[in-house]
Amino acid sequence: MKITDVELTVVAYPRDYQGASGQQLVLIDVKTDEGIDGYSMGWGVRGGVRTAEEIASVIRPQLIGEDPIDRERIYHKIEKADRWGGQLPFSTYGPVDVALWDITAKKAGLPLYKFIGGYRDRIPAYATGPAYPTPEDYVKEGLLAKKLGFRGYKLHPPGRADLDIECCKRVREAVGPDFALMSDPVGAYNFEEAMRVGRALEKLGFLWYEEPLYDYEIHNYVRLTQALDIPVVACEWVAGRYHMAAEYIVRGAVDAVRSDVAWKGGFTGYLKTAHLCEAFGLNCEIHFGSYSLLNLANLHAACGVRNCTYLELVTDMNNFGIKPPVMKLDSEGCVQAPNEPGLGVEMDWDVIEPNVVRRI
């Protein structure tokens, strides 16, 4: 089997879709001479056209003529091309790798979660959302997550320590003592603030405390992890994929690692990270994929390994551009992985085509 082309389509979200006006994604279609296509979506970090052009100029030449089954070799080939002048955005590696795994699993006639390991066929999901200005906003979303049947809710608090504590306190009071809660202030605190908020979250019974410090403050992450009882989780945004995760782990800077298929090198990068974490007895908790195909790929990835406990989703589930709409909760707050080959869905071109911005 050989890759014959990589088609890149920049798509704008409809204005009424989950409040994502102005956002763009890149739909990736890797074609082969056997007629098996692999699909994925990439995040248009600073515009979809820019992301698509980066993939076209640096990654596409590395794929044409290659056997898509040789995913490991292609991964390192792209990495080398990036090192020598590419400087690719973090959102480009992973989606292309996902498309290669989609092809390979389709060729094998297996759903991806079984192809990569098949630890389970469904996983609990928690809801997440953006930063809001007031505690009332978080209470509203937390209660909605509980009403919809999610197993938990993660706040992205405003980033001011005292206000963040109040937001977390109000949500805990609203949802009750047995509903899983997490907090992710996105690197907003200095060490003293991080300690103070962490102590408050411990009293409130939060499940984990995510990225309270700036990514490269490894020394302070070590201090924080040693001092707090609540698990400290990091590595979602830090550059370097599994390489930097290894540095955090061996220095004792985290209690669990965050990774995903979108930002951390696709299935290839995620599995390297998850297996690294497992060797040290740590969980590798999967991060929200942003777009429907990447959330679906995350579902397969999380079901293929042992050391991940939740899938992260938004409350509207995000099924844009795919059919059937597989991202849905069952009666126990879990999401079931599809059993069709590959990612297990078809592209809904009737929804996608009216929103196409450009093909590259």
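That was protein one. Protein two is written in the same sequence-then-structure order:
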Amino acid sequence: MSNPTITDVTCGPLVAGGDALVRSEGEKVLFVEGGLPGEQVRVEIDRDRKDLRNGHVVEVLEPSPVRIQAPCPMFHAGCGGCQWQHIAPTAQHEFKTGIVVDALRRIAKIEEPNVTFGGAVPDFGYRTTMHLGVIDGRAALRRRHTKDLLPLDVCMISHPRLEELIVEGRFGEATEVTLRVSVTTGERIAYVKGDIDDVKLPDDVVVTPNGRNASIHEDIAGRRFRISARSFFQSGPASAELLANAVDAVVPEDAGWIVDAYAGVGLLCGVVGEERDATITAVEQDRSAVHDARHNLADLAAEVIEAEVATVALSGETKPDVVIADPSRTGLGKSASRTLSRLGAQTFVLVSCDPASLARDVNLLAEAGYGLENTTVLDLFPQTHHVEAVSTFTR
């Protein structure tokens, strides 16, 4: 086995994906995992490709003033669940805002984007849902730089009642488990892939091998939502409320028809529709989430359509006033942006969980006649590089 390539560098800004960017004259672009802007670090090269290299910090030679000692022992054991525990929380907010600004400048070619930071959930204890691997009967996450599973002795970002299940639960011969708890009601469920005969959890936990007939309920912004085991939801109720309120703040009060694309369990249109005399059209392709959305929006003038957003056809004599879209990490893409733009809404609210896909979608919406007005950055995933952004466009 050849010796690893080691190099000393001074880190540049953090970019989408959470790595530090290093540009040196005559050298390939280098992305450094674990580096912070301005730091001098020793880096081991992991991948050397034609036009760029990737590496990770093996020694900090001159640390950044915002570098801290990571508090979680699992971080030091190599857990890949939290990538940014070595960064002071307020600095995480600044870096995430900067990453969004960089993506809009570099990819969307907007010289001075209007980007502000809109808030964060608590630094720890915020997650109420986690999808985990199982090794030797124990809940586990991937080790950094490998596909190997690391059993968790503690999980500081999880809610205490979720952490209890992660640390003390035993899952027998199962291969994966999704654990979900409710802050509102105390309900707890375990969606187990594999044999459930040897699963050992507290008596109050509903264990399901197929995700059916198992759900929790959370109160978000004054509304109660049912969330089934197989339905997507935000990392926790604090994240859901912060996001929903940010979307609600940019939707006109007099909106009469609101289309919610990628509606999930109906979180965003449910909160937005609560105080408005509006007709809601929610579009979602996941069957479990559709069932939840129909339950959650039953008291509103809402229609829930089970369909893939890019293929849905909405007809009527009028145009919707607002389109809300919360796509997956890959963003809207050409097909969905074209479909939603054709609806002709005056206001378009885009929720993005990846800065690069946000910037690409900005370009696609610009081609359809939508101009970006502002972007609000939210930290819904402290201790990680993941960033959420709510962007408002007008036609």
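The mean pLDDT is 95. Keep this in mind for the problem set.
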